[in-house]
Amino acid sequence: MHRVDAGIVGSYFSQSIQSIPSTLSIKEKNEHAIRLLDTLEIQSGEDGELYAGQLKDILAAVEQVPSPERQPILENVVEKVLLYVNNGGYFVFTRALGLADAQV
To answer: 59 with 20: CB under 8 angstroms?
Structure first.
């Protein structure tokens, strides 16, 4: 996907966020969000602010899809984001918490 035109990747990402099926199980929500995170990592590169903003969009879109049970924790998504942050994306963490101007 690194060799694909950035406009195509962006269009795929936007369309995927807007077309999350309403009948997803918890496992399927995890899988869908992971695919979006994979795309986001390529799309954002080292831009932590872009990653954090798009991460919020992904989580908001997934949360809007009703679940038969209480709102679950998407463990695979949490793990993937923590790995990204651990691998040098610490700015993502501060931006996602609204602490972009805080010293880390």
So the answer is: no
